[in-house]
Amino acid sequence: MIKTAFRVVAMMAVAVPTLAAAQDYSDPTGTYVVEPNKYPSTTFPSGYDMNNTVSWDTGIMPFNPAQSYTTTQQDTVVNDESRILNAPVYFDFSDGLRDIDYLQSVLPEATQQSVPLPTQTQPTTNTPEVFNKSYTRNEKFGSSLFGGGYNINAYITATTASSAGPKKVEALGEGYVYGKAFNVEKEIVRGRAYINGQQGGSNSGSAALYAMGQQVWSANLYTTFAPAPINWSRTFFSVSKTFMIGPVPVTVKASLSGGVRLTVTGEVGPTVARLTATPGAFANVTASAAINIVIASFGVSCDLRLVNANLPSVGELFWPFCTLDWKLKSDLQLNYLAGTLQGYVKVKILFFKKTWKVTIASWGGFTKNYNLLNLFGSQNLGIC
Fold first, then answer.
1. Which of 123, 154, 182, 328 has the fewest CB atoms within 10 Å, i.e. the most exposed one?
2. What is the pLDDT of residues 303-320, one digit of tens each?
3. Is 1 among the domain residues?
4. Domain limits at 56?
């Protein structure tokens, strides 16, 4: 048999001119209290001045805002405070005060994953009328504070001709990526491609890419197709959560920004359905902090890379006569959870300053490059 192949560029609709603005959310679980016995969840009137109102931890000398302390007494307090907290002391040349730099806590969720095990379904069985192979896999990572995940869905189906319809071949490749910040999880990207070939009917398909549920790209797929790959960036969503850092309630806003991408190639006709779809996304976290009271200073430091995923899947059917050649393949290329997010507050305590720091996220980075599935074969459908 001689096959004649020709190429048709897929029709594309590339931009959505009025994309919805990135959504802002609040963590539904409320304020994270690091040390409930010492620093319970507290609110203050707007503009309240906390400087010189917070006591020191050392008991070597009473704290009294109205008292004057000698140089020797000041040294005694600062040195013992540093000893108790096991915190270094720095000299701030901007105001001439010493600053005790105290790492108050590394939150358990900052370093410990708490997600279910991956789930997947293996290729299905067949009936005399329908040949079907499908595969799905879902996996999540991270904790309640930061994380993400992915889902892969791929199938191929061949249906014999009957009184109900013509001989038909189909293939689908789909993948989507989650992102999570402060207990709010959203599907940030979904890529989907589907083709359908049948005798005497439509031989076509479609591909689409979605960001936060909104279509940002689409293409119609005909004959041999390879539309130009799409690679597009945006801010996905933001989530705010309040943390008690030392005695100060600090609202940290984490924003997930990154890119979306999709590559599709293949062929569709009455006896062939070949589809390779590679959806993907990456998301990094930027953060800011806000308070409504007066202290020496506050802020966040953030260098957190949440997820970078490519989810390639391949589905192939070739059915010219009595025998069906098929292939179903799915891979995973994933980098996730790398970097840190830390918040701090600095309060003046009479003759020195004290900095409390809380590590909200601290991940060393993970990589997975798996061949999840690679099945192929040739099957006599018993219809000749």
1. 123
2. 999 999 999 999 999 988
3. no
4. 11-380
- Residue 261 domain flag: yes
Please answer whether residues 219 and 13 qualify as being in contact, where contact means their C-beta atoms are separated by less than 8 angstroms: yes
Number of compact structural domains in the chain: 1
What is the mean predicted confidence (pLDDT) over 329-354?
97
Query: Considering the domain boundaries, does residue 289 fall inside one?
Result: yes
**pLDDT over 50 (residue 2):** no
DSSP characters over 293-324: SB-SEEEEEEEEEEEEEE--EEEEEE-SSSEE
Task: Give the C-alpha separation, 204 to 192, whole Å.
Answer: 14
Instruction: List pLDDT tens digits, range 181-237.
Output: 999 999 999 999 999 999 877 899 999 999 999 999 999 999 999 999 988 899 999
**What whole-number distance in Å separates Cα of residue 316 and Cα of residue 131?**
12
Q: How far is residue 39's CA from residue 37's CA, in Å, rounded to a whole number? A: 6
In terms of Cα–Cα distance, which of 262, 241, 267, 256 is closest to 7?
267
CB atoms closer than 10 angstroms to residue 256? 27
Distance, CA of 224 to CA of 338 (rounded, Å): 40
Cα 236 from Cα 258, distance rounded (Å): 7
What distance in Å separates the CA atoms of residue 156 and residue 144, rounded to the nearest whole number? 36
Q: Is residue 2 part of a domain?
A: no
Tell me whether residue 362 is exposed, middle or buried, using C-beta atoms within 10 angstroms of its C-beta: 0 to 12, 13 to 18, 19 or more: middle
- Residue 7 is given by DSSP the state B
Residue located via tokens 């953060």: 287
Distance (Å, whole) CA 82 – CA 76: 10
Stated as kind and residue range, the H or E segment containing 286 is strand 272-290
